[in-house]
Write a structure and sequence with these properties.
By secondary structure, the chain is an alpha/beta fold. It has nine helices and 36 strands. Bound molecules: alpha-L-arabinofuranose.
Length: about 650
């Protein structure tokens, strides 16, 4: 059985020519066996025939507080539960009694440093001295990473009673196994009023790098001390105060993401309306942020607040795709369109002003006060998240009200609907796909015949859910097949993002299986599809070119683009079969072809092959130089492989 897939001719439209066995457009696949691939499959590329523009913003990131993505993840805070809520399901603050020291710890609901943090941790020290201190230990986010010659900075709000005025309050990094002090700082004497104390601690060159450490705050004299917001940071990306973990930011930077979709996902909506991402409570000094319960059932510090999301964008040169809360929360709570919804619409307008307004605007001024006078560029605003799940069917009305108000004030913004609506303009619709690899193989041509006159598409969440905590090679093959389809149709799909992005791999760290990047307190790793995404993003091109694949079965996928200014053709080939495939490639329309090409290949012997925190580099891309490239050349594409070629063509 012969199968020809042809891309080109009509702008951006793929035509199935011949017998595309097993494929019935828009319906269930017919129960016929898939075609058997020919011994040699031919891929004809017409390098001089551009078909459609490739979106320069196609590949981006989607993020939310899930799987301890920020707290215990990207956000550089080392203290777990820095506001002493004691509510997370992981161990956080534990009393420390050195030798004969004795005391007690309670939550004091009656005193705190701010309206947002009205309670505090009350430490009553009955007996303690310089040798035997009393205090509390925090084991961090499943460990505290400590490295040699490294500075750790922190802050804490504290006050003491008269008896504690002579006490020395110390913050230290302590090794779990040896109890050795690795770094420490002593606060100035406390007073009876709440004050913020900043400190810094430096490790020596003798310290062994590890995460088996804890943070201890201790007191050396009897008396009562109240603490709130005890925060410790190690080095952060670009040395930002209140910034992000360096290793994870470097991994994200390598993906060359064009945008960041935030703050969710379900995290935007919250389980209930009061648990939504209420952006005004996430800005300003940390002491003014109460934090809130995330729908993934742990408390979020909101240290990663609206401005931190924007600074994350700035650091990685991404544009924000800002999702605004649109009056629907996950436990089927909704706000009726009309007067009831107005305050939420106003909140969204204020939020956009906070992002984009100059300092003459109310919220632009507020952003300047928070430390960022320059406005951020914003093109995309998403109205809600997955509103198809709102059983009250109120989205049409809610969307319309947000759309009209935002368009009126910000006509240049592209507004994204989370599900198709009736009776209102839609600039873009957000489609989500969580699938098995086989489903992505079968649907890799999903958008080939999609209407080009309707709204643009944002594939805001997609992933093959195979492998845990991070997906395996089989999932990467499903995802890469899907990516060839998104790239081929990126005249329509302007932006696309995999989800979820991050997972803390410790026990209880994960709420959603199959996440792109895994980590613990100390190190991080990419799943095979992380690497495949890096490969695709590094070889994106500016336009697709006409092409035709002949004789392939149903497990071979490709995308071919070019960058005429660079004289480069980018070819991605995905062989999701266990068998190697001979592929004859012809480069028609080229005057000259560079005889060597760069090849990046990700492959594995089995679909179960994967990376993990203990074996992070089992499946990684390998770079090589392909010789003998010409207007017609043949390659053997190994089974279970994803390849990206850079071919010089004039
Ligand atoms: O990515 C995990 C969740 O999947 C997102 O929060 C939600 O939008 C989707 O249902």
């Amino acid at each position: 059985m012969k199968r020809v897939l042809k891309f080109g001719g009509l702008l951006g439209v793929a035509a199935f020519v011949g017998t595309a066995a097993g494929w019935t457009q828009g319906g269930t696949p017919a129960p016929v066996l898939p075609p058997v691939p020919q011994a040699v499959v031919t891929l004809k590329i017409e390098t001089d025939k551009p078909v459609a523009k490739v979106s320069p913003t196609l590949y981006g990131l989607m993020t939310e507080e899930i799987n301890y993505s920020y707290d215990g993840g990207l956000y550089g805070e080392l203290v777990q539960d820095r506001t002493f809520l004691g509510r997370n399901d992981t161990e956080d603050w534990i009393p420390v009694e050195e030798g004969t020291a004795r005391g007690s710890v309670t939550r004091d609901a009656g005193t705190g440093p701010s309206a947002a943090l009205p309670a505090s941790e009350k430490i009553t020290v009955e007996r303690a001295d310089a040798a035997d201190r009393y205090g509390l230990r925090n084991r961090g986010w499943w460990g505290v990473p400590v490295r040699p010659n490294t500075t750790y900075t922190g802050e804490v709000y504290a006050k003491g009673d008269a008896a504690s005025a002579a006490a020395k309050v110390r913050v230290s990094l302590i090794a779990n196994d040896t109890d050795k002090v690795l770094a420490e700082a002593t606060l100035p004497a406390l007073s009876g009023d709440w004050k913020k104390y900043e400190f810094s601690m430096k490790t020596s060159g003798e310290v062994t790098a590890s995460a088996t450490n804890q943070i201890v705050v201790s007191v050396d004299k009897p008396g009562t001390v109240w603490l709130q917001l005890l925060s410790v940071f190690g080095p952060t990306y670009k040395d930002r105060a209140n910034g992000n973990r360096v290793d994870l930011m470097e991994m994200l930077a390598a993906m060359h993401p064009a945008f960041l979709r935030f703050p969710g996902g379900n995290y935007l909506e919250g389980n209930t309306i009061p648990e939504r991402f209420d952006w005004k409570k996430t800005i300003g000094p940390l002491v003014d942020r109460p934090g809130h319960m995330s729908p993934w059932r742990y408390h979020s510090s909101d240290g990663m607040g609206l401005l931190e999301f924007l600074e994350w964008c700035e650091d990685l040169k991404m544009q924000p795709v800002l999702a605004v809360y649109a009056g629907y929360s996950l436990q089927q709570e909704h706000v009726n369109p009309g007067a009831e919804l107005e305050p939420y619409v106003q909140d969204a307008l204020d939020e956009i002003e906070y992002v984009t307004g100059d300092v003459s605007t109310k919220w632009g001024r507020e952003r300047a006060k928070d430390g960022h006078p320059a406005p951020f560029a914003l093109n995309y605003v998403e109205i809600g998240n997955e509103d198809q799940f709102d059983r009250s069917k109120s989205y049409d009305g809610r969307y319309g009200q947000f759309y009209d108000a935002i368009k009126k004030k910000y006509p240049a913004l592209t507004l994204i609907a989370t599900t198709p609506v009736k009776g209102h303009a839609m600039d873009m619709v957000d489609d989500h796909y969580y699938r098995r690899a086989e489903q992505f193989f079968a649907d890799a041509h999903h958008y080939d015949k999609a209407d080009r006159n309707g709204p643009k598409i944002f594939v805001g969440e997609w992933a093959t859910r195979e492998g845990t905590p991070t997906p395996n090679m089989g999932a990467a093959l499903g995802d890469a097949a899907w990516m060839t389809g998104m790239e081929r149709n990126s005249d329509l799909i302007l932006i696309a993002s995999y989800a979820p992005l991050l997972v803390n791999v410790n026990p209880n760290g994960m709420q959603w299986q199959s996440d792109l990047i895994g980590y613990d307190a100390f190190s991080s790793y990419g799943s095979p599809i992380y690497y495949a995404q890096v490969m695709f993003a590094n070889h994106v091109g500016t336009e697709t070119v006409a092409s035709e694949l002949e004789g392939a079965g149903d497990r071979l996928f490709y995308s071919v683009t070019r960058d005429a200014a660079k004289g480069m053709v980018y070819l991605k080939v995905v062989n999701a079969s266990s068998k190697a495939q001979e592929l004859k490639i012809t480069l028609d329309g080229a005057k000259t072809v560079k005889p060597t090409a760069k090849l990046v290949r990700l492959s594995a012997a089995t679909t179960a092959a994967t990376n993990s925190i203990t074996d992070p580099k089992r499946v990684v891309p390998v770079e090589s130089v392909v010789k003998g490239v010409s207007k017609e050349f043949t390659r053997t594409v190994p089974g279970y492989s994803i390849e990206a070629y850079e071919i010089g063509v004039q």
